[in-house]
Amino acid sequence: MRTDIYVNYDGTCEDAFRFYEQHLGGKVTGLTTHANGPMSGRLPEAWRDKVLHARLELGNAVLMGADIPGAEPMRSAYVTLTLDTAAEAERVYALLADGGQIFMKLETTFFASRFAQLRDRFGTSWMLLHEHPAR
């Protein structure tokens, strides 16, 4: 069994996945637009080029997504990135926080040398974590 993550967007799925691919080292391995889907004839013209299903390999996980009219940013779940170094946590935090909303700024906690919670400009909620080195 494997757990993957599925995120809905209100028209920015491709932009988000391309951004994650470019800046987080992911790889988009699938992207189908609504125009190529089974309901293409029943969609408003503006949604034909929006994403019906996308797949991004990111680290050892898969992030999938779609554009859904009226989709709201995720509120109760976070895509969690466990980063290898504090410097990488700081880089990713700066990248994802740009134009986004910070819930908890990047800081040291009792369980991590770096930890943050934020929502990026595409509406994806992220938890960033660099654990304390083993003692």
TrEMBL record:
Domain Glyoxalase/fosfomycin resistance/dioxygenase, residue spans: 10-127
CDD domains from the UniProt entry: PhnB_like
UniProt cross-references to Gene3D superfamilies, sorted A to Z: 2,3-Dihydroxybiphenyl 1,2-Dioxygenase, domain 1 (3.10.180.10)
SUPFAM superfamilies the record matches: Glyoxalase/Bleomycin resistance protein/Dihydroxybiphenyl dioxygenase
Keyword ATP-binding attributed: no
Recorded superkingdom: Bacteria
UniProt key word Methyltransferase: yes
Keywords: Methyltransferase, Transferase, Ubiquinone
Membrane spanning stretches: none
GO biological-process terms attached to the record: methylation
GO molecular function: methyltransferase activity
Protein name: 3-demethylubiquinone-9 3-methyltransferase
Native organism: Gemmatirosa kalamazoonensis
